[in-house]
Inverse folding.
């Protein structure tokens, strides 16, 4: 457990600034008196790019390394070509800091609207691989822009990378009451990567005899996400499938306004980074309509990662209680932040 | 419009046999007297593989070429290693016969249970690319089975392949009342393939000024599939995203028992192939529980492809009417087939 937290803050674009402010408010309120919090803000994102053409200069990447953790709001703006900030900033951080565990819990909180009829019980966590698969930026385009163009995308998967995320997922499953782990891939089509994932999944599973395992093709998994989400406990999957499934998971658990995530390097070699799953939502930026809960729940993941389990639980309980008592009247970004800060304080 | 149909039938595995029998029953019942139907069954699938080690020998691939169309039940069995039949038979057919349009309509029929609360109106069609993307079988594995293994999967995309499917999707959108086309990709991460898709989508769009267009990342698309499926009219997307999205679409429109598909080569150079989206469901094979409706709706797509639009509509109307009058009592595979055959006859 850390007795001081030296936090890097990247508010980013759109609603990023607004939700991060509430995340920091709750973090300050929940921290024990004797834990010293220092924050340093980094000006990265669309505005910086427009101003200087830079996405993530080496000096800032280097400076970020020396923090205990990073809190990120949201990156992206329609004024920037698609991919520039994603590849040049967000994914660059995930890859440079070897965030191989992309942790995305999904829980249907009380009194929260789900698009699913019959309100199933939903409480699972997706352990998404964060440093391989089709996200490596490998590939290219030949005769670009001509009728003879060929464009490739290469998914790269290593036993090293797959085993560490699979092992992490078994550990998590083993520590949860239901002890169930589902591998999601598409090994009937992506046979090279898929068979490697499945073989490693089976091999590591021998070390966890108490964990019940299951395999689903990604297409079939989406069916169960809407028809039987209660069947899932821990899911482990590749970078792209994890991206797709966690947005769907957010949708069925009441929306992207509640979905938290951690980009974690469990070795501690580099700082881990915590961010809401949602994007920068430029359409509602500045209106006070953004729900900061996803960021606040990401702060809980951050505290858990730094050893403050009790404070993480305090935030999660506060969110549960807050949602349970919600009466449907509109609350601004700041009002939600204030309410949660008040609940966790003390 | 053809005055004779020389149909290849591949019942395949599990429930394939049962549902195909009902598909043929309805096909026979709906065809005008003066259209001669000839069928030839091909013994392909798990049993054949166990017996002979063959998935799709050259002689049969050659013979299949000479049919007007192919009706396929389902391929796959847990006794066969994952990928063997998929790559060696199903995908081999799609690639050999250049089925570049994988057409998957999604409609929420009356009186059909959806997992979504509030029963949105759903009536869209996914035009999935069928011959490129991560499905080409490109890739490999190095140091297989060792801790130093590297496995790759290469998504190959060509302007040639993308333009023809995008154009087909515009044509379909243009002929529908809402005239709306959504491109789904992930061009903020898969920048090479994604930008090519987007550029071609925009370029071809200039020829269809009446079609309203939209772009969604695949992760965001899954959210809208459950929160606002009514926003979609025609969707065009790559092979893998189309695979994932159409299973999700089937789930929200009342299940995989109703989802039809056509693997179409619009040039007529090779026979097109029609199949339910569902798999071989070995767990219910032989129980009479399989719903043949997806296969019967695939027969409607087959008839439309061969120019018998009126007969296709007759089947679709029969399915609508049949579902509307359904009272919840169990009906066997054969009973559903009989009911639909009776409705379309005359
Ligand atoms: C913005 C994008 C690069 C990112 C991803 O694809 O990982 C986002 O969708 C996410 O899930 O965090
Ligand atoms: C069986 C499998 C190869 C196939 C696919 O991935 O295309 C199936 O899921 C489908 O959607 O038709």
């Amino acid at each position: 457990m850390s007795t001081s937290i030296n936090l890097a803050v990247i508010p980013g674009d759109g609603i990023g600034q607004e939700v991060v402010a509430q995340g920091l408010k709750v973090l300050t309120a929940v921290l024990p008196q004797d834990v010293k919090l220092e924050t340093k803000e980094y000006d990265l994102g669309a505005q910086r790019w427009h101003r200087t053409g830079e996405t993530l200069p080496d000096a800032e990447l280097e400076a970020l390394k020396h923090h205990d953790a990073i809190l990120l709001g949201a990156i992206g703006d329609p004024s920037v070509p698609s991919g520039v900030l994603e590849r040049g900033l967000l994914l660059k951080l995930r890859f440079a800091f070897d965030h191989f565990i992309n942790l995305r819990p999904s829980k249907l909180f009380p009194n929260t609207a789900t698009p699913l009829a019959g309100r199933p019980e939903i409480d699972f966590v997706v352990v998404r691989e964060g440093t391989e698969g089709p996200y490596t930026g490998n590939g290219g385009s030949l005769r670009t822009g001509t009728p003879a163009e060929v464009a490739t995308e290469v998914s790269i998967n290593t036993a090293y990378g797959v085993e560490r995320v699979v092992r992490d997922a078994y550990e998590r499953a083993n520590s949860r009451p239901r002890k169930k782990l589902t591998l999601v891939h598409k090994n009937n089509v992506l046979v090279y990567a898929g068979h490697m994932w499945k073989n490693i999944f089976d091999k590591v599973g021998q070390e966890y005899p108490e964990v019940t395992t299951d395999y689903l093709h990604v297409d079939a998994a989406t069916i169960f996400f809407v028809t039987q989400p209660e069947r899932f406990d821990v899911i482990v999957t590749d970078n792209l499938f994890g991206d797709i499934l966690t947005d769907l998971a957010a949708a069925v658990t009441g929306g992207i306004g509640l979905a938290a995530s951690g980009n974690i390097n469990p070795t501690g070699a580099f700082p881990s980074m915590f961010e809401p799953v949602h994007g920068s939502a430029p359409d509602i930026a500045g209106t006070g309509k953004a729900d900061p809960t996803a960021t606040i729940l990401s702060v809980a993941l951050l505290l858990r990662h730094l050893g403050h389990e009790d404070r993480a639980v305090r935030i999660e309980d506060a969110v549960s209680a807050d949602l349970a008592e919600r009466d449907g009247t509109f609350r601004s970004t700041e009002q939600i932040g204030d309410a949660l800060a008040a609940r966790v304080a003390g």
